Predict the 3D structure of the following.
Amino acid sequence: MTALAWFELIVSGLITGGVYALVGLGLNLQYGLMRILNIAHGEFLMLGAFLTWAAATGWGWSPLLMIPVSFVLLMALGVALHRLTFRRIARTSPDLDVFEARGLMVSFGLMFLVQNFAHATWGADLRGYDYLTEPVVLPGGAQFAGNKLLLLGLSLAIAALLIVVLRLTLWGKGVRALMQSPTGAQLVGMDTERLHPLMFGAGLGLSGVAGCLLSTAYTITPSMGEPYTVTALIVITLGGFGHMGGALFGGLALGVVEALGMHFTNPSLKSLLSYAVFIAALLCKPDGLFNRRP
Amino acid sequence: MTDPLHHPLPRRRVVQALAGSAAGVALAGMPALVRANSPVRIGYTMARTGPWSVGAQVSQEPNYLLWAEQTNAAGGLDVKGTRRPVELLASDDQSNLETCVRTYEKLMGSDKVDLVLPPWGSNANFAVAPLANRYGYPFLAPTALSRRLVEMKLPYFFLLLQQPKPMMEALVDMLRSQGAKSLATIYVDDLFGLENYAALKVALQGSGIQLVEDKSYPLGVKDLAPVLRGIKDRNPDAFVGLTYPPDTILASRQSKEIGFNPKFFYASVGTAFQLYRNVMKEGAEGVLGMGSWNGKSSAAAKAYFDAHVKKFGAAKEPDRWASGHCWAGLEILSAAVAKVGLDRKAIRDFVAAGTHRTIVGDIRFQGSENVGVPGTVSQWQKGEFEVVWPKSRATAALAPAKPAW
């Protein structure tokens, strides 16, 4: 295999991995911070994809414009959902384990609700539109669709921005403190009443952005979200719960492993490869690749 | 003593007798009257949610709805000379095999509907067909493609689509006639993909076309670029994707991305969808796929196409393969009920024995298989999915080399 072929293969893995990372980061915000294992996470990705498709085909809006719009809309939806469901559960659950179990059930319910809402609104048809599909030849001869390169660039940029915000701003430090020690953070005056809904909303917003980017390159259906939830779970387990850099690395690594595996073996073995990575991580580094045992 | 035989009946008795006999006549006539007005109950499940819904909502359920509407608008279904309204008892099987089987069991076992219409896809039909056979319900399946279904020899089961063998033979025949020497294939690893792949390999034997690459992929695959890049390196004359609608579009888009431009690009389910043209735009030109009819095939096909577009809108055209076969199945069922009524055994015999004139041509069955319609290949040409092979069924001449994406 030539160096060019290797390069193309690895970049195509990174493109897929960029989306995995974005979805994983969103779920990590929710699970790492609040212990909400949001099984409906992929459904909000699907909503972001459908909103972008509807805006692009109905009103001729650019998908790029829909990135902030999807983020804001889904974040608002996330804040509202948190207020309606998870805040109540948090108040009535006797301990964290019960909250986690109840949260899981609620998110299952949300999954069916959102999926059926999409079915009722847009029907079950496969949807798609044409956006930057022309191949772009990079120096050296490697060739990718414009929308895929955009997808990679934007997903990496958004993931990096989130990590920088969490590292450098006071607000971000508060969120990280809450992830590391919820009780300690509250003792020093962190306002969980405000941060929790905002972070839940931000998680959904990221999912919406991932959906928005995906719709530029892939066809969409109301049932497209579930596989991404599973992938996001693998990604955050790989990177470590609550570890944002780990989720980014986990997403990209999973994308590359899948691309190489599919090329050298068979696409039918893709799930086997993903779960092999997952099981190996659980066996060797059960707290994730980047989390140190306390 | 008065002779009772000659004694004139009191007026009161006469009135009572007349009233009684009138009631008797009315009661005796009622079942026929009730039957004439009561609807023909036809049950089915359809994927309205889940992964099957994409195909089901393009190729199948819209046709059931259109047929019921047209039939009722014409005064009802002709049941051996009596017009009765059609009542569809439909539910969402959520693309779930278990839900699908359980619902058909209820429809046939306890609801005892008059007729059933099949669900979407080879897998669902594979699960439900033996059940329909056990209950004695004729089952004219529009979207099942499997040799194994034929081999099950179920007397009540009929496959309307052309099966893998004729479809792959037609494809290889066309490729050979155009001088193709090498071929690469990817196939979805379920019943549809595996059987078509097996049929393709058999058809290639002795054809002079070399199979240079073959790889399977799972249902719901999100990325085929790594495999397509490998195939591009081998530079085959023909690419054959034994694919479902999302994968058909994925493989096409990603081939365009990586600049994979074989002389012949063939993909399977979904190439015949209007969506394919909408998504691929000019890139669709020259793409080959599974198709068997279009509005030019016959006047009846044109009438069906126009009625479908009128009901569901220009954005939801029928696809140029299974939709037509689905409509053909409904045409056969209507003809059978008009001829023999709702006796399901008689309907089965009618379907099995005759040659049926439909919008996709004359259909006749050998066992469960439609042997009336030969294997076909279609190609996107200037916005229409034209039948190009065999020449006897062609609506346009084959464009021998696909332009670059």
The domain at 13-129+142-284 of chain A is CATH 1.10.3470 (ABC transporter involved in vitamin B12 uptake, BtuC). Chain A touches chain B at residues 5, 8-9, 12-13, 16, 115-116, 119, 123-130, 133, 135, 143-145, 148, 217-219, 221-223, 227, 258-260, 262-263, 266-268, 270-271 (CB under 8 Å). The mean pLDDT of chain A is 89.
